[in-house]
Amino acid sequence: MKPVELFVTCMVDAFRPTAGIAAVRVLERRGAEVRFPQEQTCCGQFSYNGGYHHEAAQLARHFVAVFESSDHPIVALSGSCAAMVIHEYPSLIAEDVLSTGGSKEEAADWKHRAEQVGLRAIELSQWITQQRPEGAAASHDAKSATSVVLHQGCHMRRLLKANAEPEAALRQSGIQPLTVGDEDQCCGFGGTYSMTEWKVSTALADAKWDNIKKVVQEHAATCLTSADLGCLLHLEGRQSRLGETFPVLYLAEVIDQADQQEKGGT
Amino acid sequence: MAGILPADPTPWTKRRDAGLSDVTMRRTIGIVTKRFSTGQHNVFSGYPEGSLARQAAVVAKRQAIRDMDKLWPRFRANVEARGGRTYYARDAQEAVTIVVKIAQNHQVQRVIKTKSMLTEELQLNHALETQGVLVVETDLGEYIIQRAQETPSHILAPAAHKNRDQIETLFRDDAGGRGIAPPQSNDAQSLTLYARQCLREEFLQADMGITGGNFAVAETGTVVLITNEGNADMVTTLPQILVSVVGIEKIVDTWENLGVLIQQPAMNGIGQRLSSYTTFVSGPRRESMVEGPAEWHVVVVDNGRHLLRDTVFEDVLSCIRCGACLNVCPVFRQVGGHAYGSVYSGPIGIVETPLLTDWSILPELPTVACTVCHACGEACPMEIDLPHHVIQLRQEKVRRRLVAASVTRSYRWWAQLWSTAGGYRRSLRWARWGQRLYQRQGTLRSAPGIARGWFMSRNMPPVAAETFHEWWDKHRMGGPS
């Protein structure tokens, strides 16, 4: 058994807990002993991107304190939140310590603690592919594979630079991921940007859906998926408002379904 | 000393809506930006020397910015040694005054210009026109938007928002006004031919030329211009008076460093290994020469540049105006360049506009025009940390209280609650209780406070009857079952 600490993210926790439960099953089937630090809340990225760095640092310090007691991997159910912990925490916290009257030693200490936590953070599909780095499962017939549209979140792509992992994780489960035109364009979510600048955000969601629909029509994809629930809630919320119902599933939910089908089929 | 930049007085919401509702512009800008960004990607593949030059260019430009105050006197001395006159303008007003005075001293009536973002920043054309001077832009894109009485929508391709039909209409109207033959059709060749014929006359009649400067070389006092149309060759050789208006951040020390930098705007802006024409100006006509201006005036402009020195934003001064960040920006592609209200649009514009002016204009830009997707950071050949600069400017807005107090209170309250597990869980229970008012058919359709904008166009699942935390409490407390 490989112990891992699960970081579900606030959005999975509150709005899609079933995605978190699916992730637990997916992890356990791959030999993980899932632990869930129950004091965890939110990574603070909403506040950070909004310019509220002191507020973000409060949440960041809480996160570090909650997760620093072990040395197991921290599996995050969001590429964006993982990137926040890994890339922004050390300097965010250190700068906040200094700007609120802390000493240089304190800042350096916090920075070190944040870095140690960041080194352990890993997004779910990265963890999955790490378990079987050799790649796709051989037992699946590519032709009969279920096709899904894969949306790659911007922070997954550009901060974690994990461009291959969600695709590889899906392929390992016999799922055929399809990419959309202009795949490197943001879906318009952007955290609180989706609320403060809803018109631009929605225009981007509509542009993304146009590209998704083209792929769906061509390849008969069964759902839209991503390693980031934030993008998905935004895209799903948009089509829901327009009265459309194309299935939108978080990556772990897709893999969990495939796992169950495989178990049922053999 | 803060710079002075023009600002569109129309509020952001109106500028944004005008962009979003301009279907033709959005389609056109979508095609152009995609072509440019694909070009940038392709030109570097299989060309390792190009990547090495880019890396060397970053180092050279960063050092040049560090040495800005040493390079300027050196550049100045070398320009003067070759017979040029030099001026230093601290802000837009001083720069404009200097150029207008040169024009007046020579009774200039007709000016021809190369494309220059700095002169847009200074609103130099307007200043000259109010003095009765006729100013004609000779870059094709600039020529087009000048006919339309518009400002550039893209720092590299000023008319990127216009399609061929719109340009044909503009040229037809223009031809009607002049009583000359209009373009034969809306194909690129006919349109270019029309502009070329008109511009020939302008080149021959002008008594003063004005250029910007893509680069300036300190060791020889040279101003460097790159174009794809050759118009800078004409502007710098035909009129008797030549004025070059150059940003102080454009000076590099040596030709060696110019060598690595000079490819970058073309490679990263349009995916071409080098611009079609490179024009070097190293002084007025000397006795042995048959062509060239009798006088060359070089105006070096600060206009807020020094405010960025020795700050975390210093790398912004490395910008070579290639437009790569605009081309990949999702917001730019949706709203177009004019929505920004500043001469500098896109990611570089939202960072540079408040910084150069010390927040005196368009303070909304860093907030309203960025989804923090980091595409600009990836695209910038000069490795300017645009995404983090945007976030830092948002922080600066909070510090300067440029954000509504109610929003700030919400964030504070949110952070206070969510920095403890108890507060976090409590807040979700409150939300679950409160959301009953906003639900219909199992989905949230509205919400109060900062979340309100979401529900203008999207639904949201309600906070679950059982959160993951609660599920874990119930099913997994004490370890996996």
Describe the structure in your own words.
The complex is a heterodimer of chains A (266) and B (481). Chain A has 13 helices and 8 strands. In chain A, helix 2 crosses helix 13. Chain A is of the alpha/beta class and 266 residues long. Helices cover 58% and strands 12% of the residues of chain A. In chain A, 60% of the residues are buried. The radius of gyration of chain B is 26 Å and the shape is elongated. Chain B starts with 11 loop residues before the first helix and ends in a 5-residue tail after the last helix. Chain B contains 23 helices and 12 strands. Classes of the chains: A alpha/beta (266), B alpha/beta (481). Chains A and B meet through helix 1, helix 2, helix 3, helix 4 and helix 8 of A and helix 1, helix 16, helix 19, helix 20 and helix 21 of B.
